[in-house]
């Protein structure tokens, strides 16, 4: 029986870290946005359980509150790591987007396949001064989104990707 090949090699040699690629990371303010969103999502059922606890006290309500607290603690530990794992890199012919800790994803978007580029920012994102860049390609299944960019960087990236996409498309 032969030994399996090692799953991890030196930095810059794995499928999620191509050699010679300099990754740009997103703003750490994305952690705040995701934690606030998670906190609001967990607070809604917690308030409902607290109202039930005041009106009709029962032991299982404490169990549900404890579970919600554990979920909030888990999010507080996990979200910063998830945000640090998000990165993108512009190469000569394509854009690389990677994310994930346990389930890693690397999306490669050739500039010539881009149809248009969106920049989005909801009320919370605008308050935290972050934006999302979404790439639309010929493939409907491509998940090419970069969350948590500074607005100036999102604008620069949008303009650069749009011009590179037009240049590559014109060459076809």
Automatic annotation (TrEMBL):
Domain spans labelled YdbS-like PH: 84-161
Alphabetical list of Pfam families matching this protein: bPH_2
Regions crossing the membrane: 35-56, 62-79
Keyword annotations from UniProtKB, A to Z: Membrane, Transmembrane, Transmembrane helix
Region feature Disordered, mapped onto this chain: 1-21
InterPro entries with a match to the protein in the record: YdbS-like_PH
Full protein name: PH domain-containing protein
């Amino acid at each position: 029986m032969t030994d399996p090949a090692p799953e991890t090699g030196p930095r810059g040699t794995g499928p999620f870290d191509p050699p010679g690629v300099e990754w740009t990371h997103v703003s750490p303010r994305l952690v705040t946005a995701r934690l606030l969103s998670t906190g609001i999502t967990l607070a809604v059922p917690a308030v409902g359980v607290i109202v039930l606890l005041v009106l009709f006290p029962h032991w299982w309500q404490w169990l549900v509150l404890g579970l919600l607290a554990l979920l909030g603690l888990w999010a507080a530990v996990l979200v910063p790591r998830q945000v640090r794992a998000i990165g993108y890199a512009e190469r000569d012919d394509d854009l690389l987007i990677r994310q994930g800790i346990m389930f890693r994803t690397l999306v490669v978007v050739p500039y010539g396949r881009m149809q248009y580029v969106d920049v989005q920012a909801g009320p919370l994102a605008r308050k935290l001064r972050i934006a999302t860049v979404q790439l639309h390609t010929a493939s409907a299944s491509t998940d090419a989104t970069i969350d948590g960019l500074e607005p100036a960087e999102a604008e620069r990236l949008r303009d650069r990707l749009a011009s590179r996409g037009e240049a590559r498309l014109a060459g076809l």
